[in-house]
Write a structure and sequence with these properties.
The structure is a homodimer. By secondary structure, chain A is of the alpha/beta class. Chain A has helices at about 1-15, 20-30, 50-60, 75-85, 130-135, 140-155, 175-185, 195-200, 225-230, 230-240, 260-265, 275-280, 285-295, 300-310; strands spanning about 35-45, 65-70, 90-95, 160-165, 220, 245-250, 295-300. In chain A, strands 1, 2, 3, 4, 5, 6 and 7 form a seven-stranded parallel beta sheet that branches. In chain A, helix 6 (about 140-155) runs parallel beside helix 7 (about 175-185). The radius of gyration of chain A is 19 Å and the shape is globular.
Chain lengths: ~300, ~300
């Protein structure tokens, strides 16, 4: 991976030695070691009209500062038009290999014949990470994910980063390496975080190593317990209050709680329609804006990170 | 076309001579020549959640008695599950070659590489009938439409008829013959009507001949002038009042006027979201039910027609 090496060399020039910890990364990014840096990231743009509109609203409000787009989804066209119109908002490609919903289905950008290991009997993506892990052939994963990026590029998008829907690329070392390889090939930073890999996706700690990579130090993702207790907004407020120095990320899924969104997330309260409305409300609220100021949180962008890694 | 010949022979047995007019068709269907027969048909199922829910609602209410499904659309899965659960409602395949919306796009079931003449630079269907007419290669049209039907069949659907989205198959004799050929191959009656062909789609009267085919004698389709004047419901009521003996059809597009539907039909008042809500309301109303009774209108089904044509 020559680009990764170039990046490491660049970082070495800026730092006192080989960069293998957050402090050095912060230094290379030009920030103080004590600064609390934050990306507020909205996943799932393109999924639906409700998701698109809420994402646009939260971006315009200025509290979330990046989002990522699902190329295979029905409302891709609408969000892609927005991205072309507002290129200054950081937007990634939300690499998609699964569709978790019960009555709303989508499948690969490529035909079923090209990527048969990625689809169920009806040609849609599998619902769970586990099914993808058990069935998807790495060469087909690579082909499909590159096709998603190529489709976005051919549409005129100039993405700032890559991430992985449901963090399915964190289910095996092989997928994780593919993710790295694709990021490197397209010169796009990839979202990496140990909690996403070990807790959300499933690779054991012993199997992976994120040393010498730009990782998100601390990741905050709402949980079902807090949502059920009506404490989701409190969770986000607390995350802002307890933020530590380093690179932090809050991962959210803003959407309007509409007829459409309730149908998509039917029987799926986890990251469901009501949850997403809370995400929208909190991250467009005065409370959130005030907390960011009060806690002296410094928002950072994927654009900065991209410039550092792929100058 | 051996099936078509078998059908003609069947009709000849039942009628006094070669069947070339409506009266004979009605006889063959077992109805009195003076009866006012009616199909109320909802197009565009599968287009969106709002369209699906309204179609289901109108079918359950019992006033509309057939609908047709757009296989390439994002909400196909939801309506297909409904069709499997309620197989007794007549459902056709709404053969789709175009996508008329501005920010909501869909494309062929087959890959772009397989049917390059059917898609724009971004891989979506063309917006207008004219573009399809000018660019689509008949062999690719046939391949894609058969793939749409095969996809529905493999899903477990057992359609009762075929029709054509935006009646694009009525733009040329070649397409019209393809439509006939596909209907015959799958042993499914096709929706044929001279007004759809000459007024909506564009083949000149001199070029086509619907003799010896089962056609809809009179077709009623709401128009923009009445919609703008707030007279769409009146148009439907008048259609019911002035219905003539023979096979009649009212073509509608019921949908809930939601956030989703307004976004899909943005800048497209013709068959837009508000229009579709009126369709839903009128065809679930007591007024409509009363008129059908008062005017002694006999509802007929595609299932009856299918049994006659392909016994």
């Amino acid at each position: 991976m020559p680009m990764l090496e170039a990046w490491r060399e660049k970082l070495m020039e800026k730092s006192s030695g080989f960069m293998n910890n957050t402090k050095q990364m912060l230094q290379a990014l030009g920030y103080d070691n004590k600064q609390k840096l934050l990306i507020i990231h909205a996943d799932d743009a393109g999924l639906s009209h409700s998701e698109n509109q809420a994402t646009m609203e939260a971006l315009r409000r200025g509290l979330i500062n990046s989002y990522s787009i699902m190329v295979p989804c029905p409302w891709f066209y609408e969000i892609a038009e927005f991205a072309l119109q507002y290129p200054n908002f950081d937007h990634g490609i939300h690499l998609t290999l699964s569709c978790e919903w019960n009555s709303y289905k989508f499948g690969p950008v490529l035909s079923q014949e090209e990527v048969p290991s990625l689809v169920d009997a009806q040609g849609y993506f599998f619902k769970s990470r586990k099914e993808v892990l058990n069935r998807a052939k790495p060469e087909e994963v690579k082909k499909e994910l590159c096709a998603q990026i190529e489709r976005a590029l051919s549409f005129g998008l100039r993405p700032t980063h890559l991430d992985s829907h449901m963090y399915t690329l964190g289910t095996s070392i092989e997928f994780l390496n593919l993710y790295r390889e694709i990021g490197n090939f397209y010169q796009l930073p990839i979202m990496l975080n140990s909690k996403l890999i070990t807790e959300v996706s499933g690779i054991k700690t012993v199997e992976f190593d994120l040393k010498n990579e730009l990782v998100i130090d601390s990741l905050y993702l709402g949980n079902l317990t807090d949502f059920k207790k009506g404490k989701l907004a409190d969770y986000y407020a607390n995350a802002l209050k307890k933020l530590q120095p380093g690179i932090n990320m809050i991962l959210i899924h803003p959407a309007y709680d509409t007829h459409e969104m309730r149908a998509i997330t039917k029987n799926h309260p986890n990251f469901g329609s009501a949850w997403r409305q809370i995400d929208l409300e909190f991250f467009t609220s005065q409370q959130c804006e005030d907390l960011i100021k009060k806690e002296k949180i410094q928002m950072i962008s994927w654009t900065e990170i991209k410039k550092l890694i792929y100058p």
